[in-house]
Design brief:
alpha/beta, 18 helices, 6-stranded parallel sheet, 2 domains, 45% helix, binds nicotinamide-adenine-dinucleotide, Rossmann fold, 437 residues
Length: 437
């Protein structure tokens, strides 16, 4: 099938590459010409394991190409995927400008029947909005259909998630269109749900809001555990064995970040409001998430007796492991507060340092975790990269000036850390220290 993918970010680039790998002819479009130039040179604008090889393979086989000419790409395709960003506006609504622009470009290039598939995360009703925009702006009276096919991939495992999704949701206005998109996904042999457009749009937000709820829930439980002397890791295990609950997204920590959960929760609250429903449950989820990192920083500041003049090592900058994405990353909040309180920061992340440099040009970027720890009074783990789990703690300790570790992701064993002589602080687990700290 001839496919056009508008937007070559995490979703568009991965979707386009996987469809090409399945034997389709794919043109990926981005209005960012620098990005297109990079991709044409074989350089990836984002870090995603396995992506570079997949792109190279399909470019070499002439199944995948890149352009910034949307109209030409749309003209040549029978299915057009919209994968542009929907970033949050100040009030929490998603900014729909990019989706609108994409719809207008599609309208102008409409030369024969096409299926327009929206993969961006958009509020319920967007399918109708895209349909109307195309109707009003098309130059020829050519027919088309609009489908919602929300994306559930996770950064860091995006290719695997696209090849082996738990489910594929196709929200279509009629059976014939649904079958066309189903045919595209058929080689994956994964469960598919065919539904109406509005329900498909809602499934995406409801899923993300539910996962965010699990995270805030376990963080709230962790905060109670901390005061009560219980261990949230044990509590989580005990809950997770219950198949009705499941252990996924029940790790206590600094809260959720990234380009999806924070913005999608806010967007759903706004949507609910527009339909006259006060979604106070989800508002609390957002509130717990906002407070979580502040609570931890307050504790750090108390333990360190203020940050003024202290040198703090920050391990992990990306919003989660295996990505370079810094959108709504907890590291940004942590570093901003450390700097504004007079600390100096030595940071290390395996992948995300270049992007962090754009936000904090004046902190020290270390070669590795040990280099970050050099002369540090305290060290904070912000992102649970696997390599941080296997550090040589003796080496880390001798690099530091102090011995205080704040584990914002509960990756170390409190008992072992204490035995090694660290002043160890984590989330929702007893550390054998006076609980009033
Ligand atoms: N990143 C994720 O993990 C993820 C997962 C599921 C769903 N989503 C959703 O998918 C959508 C895309 O997310 P992303 O992370 O890939 O975004 P992104 O910001 O990484 O990429 C979006 C790309 O679209 C391009 N673009 C914007 N307007 C354009 C236009 N009119 N024509 C051509 N290109 C245009 C931008 O230049 C950018 O390269 C969002 O709605 C997001 O919520 C993201």
């Amino acid at each position: 099938m001839n496919i056009c993918v508008i937007g070559t970010g995490y979703v568009g680039l991965v979707t386009g590459s996987v469809f090409a790998d399945l034997g389709n002819e794919v043109i990926c479009v981005d209005k960012n010409e620098a990005k297109v130039a990079m991709l044409r040179r074989g350089e990836m604008p984002i870090y995603e394991p396995g992506l570079e090889e997949m792109v190279a393979r399909n470019v070499a086989d002439n199944r995948l190409c890149f352009t910034s000419d949307t109209e030409e790409a749309v003209e040549r395709s029978e299915v057009v995927f919209i994968c542009v960003g929907t970033p949050p506006k100040e009030n929490g609504d998603p900014d729909m400008t990019y989706v609108e622009e994409a719809a207008i470009s599609i309208a102008r290039a409409l030369n024969r029947y096409k299926v327009v598939v929206n993969k961006s995360t958009v509020p319920v009703g967007t399918g109708n909005m895209v349909r109307e925009l195309i109707e009003v702006n098309r130059r020829r009276n050519v027919d088309f259909d609009v489908v919602s096919n929300p994306e559930f991939l996770r950064e860091g495992s995006a290719i695997n998630d696209t090849l082996y999704p738990d489910r594929i949701v196709i929200g279509a206005p009629n059976h014939t269109v649904a079958m066309k998109i189903l045919e595209l996904y058929a080689p994956l042999e994964r469960p598919m749900l065919i539904t109406d457009v509005a329900s498909a749009e809602m499934i995406k937000y409801a899923s993300n809001a539910f996962l965010a709820t699990k995270i805030s829930f376990i963080n709230a439980i962790a905060n109670i555990c901390e005061a009560a002397g219980a261990d949230v890791v044990q509590v989580m295990k005990g809950m997770g064995y219950d198949h009705r609950i499941g252990a996924a997204f029940l790790q206590a920590g600094l809260g959720y970040g990234g380009s999806c959960f924070p913005k999608d929760s806010m967007a759903l609250i706004q949507t609910a409001e527009k339909f006259g429903y006060d979604f106070h449950l989800l508002k609390s989820v957002v509130q717990v998430n906002r407070e979580q990192v502040m609570r931890f920083m307050d504790r750090m500041e108390r333990v360190m007796q203020g940050f003024q003049g202290k040198r703090i090592a920050v391990l992990g900058l990306a919003f989660k492991p295996n990505t370079d994405d810094l959108r709504e990353a907890k590291s940004v909040e942590v570093i901003a507060r450390l700097l504004s309180s007079g600390a100096t920061v030595r940071a290390y992340d395996p992948i995300a340092m270049e992007k962090t440099r754009e936000i904090f040009p004046n902190i020290h970027y270390a070669e590795n975790a040990y280099d970050a720890a050099e002369g540090a009074d305290g060290l904070v783990v912000v992102t649970e990269w696997n390599e941080f789990r296997f550090l040589n703690m003796d080496r880390l300790k001798s690099a530091m000036r102090g011995a205080t570790i704040f584990d914002g992701r509960n990756i170390y064993d409190p008992l072992r850390m204490r035995r090694m002589g660290f002043d160890y602080h984590c989330i929702g687990r007893p550390t054998g220290r006076n609980r009033s700290e």
